[in-house]
Design brief:
Elements (H helix, E strand, L loop, with lengths): L4 H36 L5 H20 L5 H23 L7
Length: about 100
Amino acid sequence: MPHTKSAKKALRQSTKRRLLNRSQRSSLRTLIKKFIALVADAAAPQEEKETQFRLVSRRLDQAAARNLIHSNAASRTKSRLAARLNKAKAAPSAPAHAPA
């Protein structure tokens, strides 16, 4: 435990920051999981998937700007989510071949 007055204050500050960061990181992860579930749902409209992707991308960029996550991690996650979105977009348009 801290002994000096400044060390006690630093502990209070770091505890408060840690809790805030954990909360924000958790909500970001939840948002990403909801987007992945939405993309996996074939019945969901494409416009909703794209608007949700823009929201997730914006939140990832904001988290990187606040040093909540590394900027490369944000870019990597956005790239992987975009790939999922594009794969889901291409899947319904593929022609279904009936056996002749």
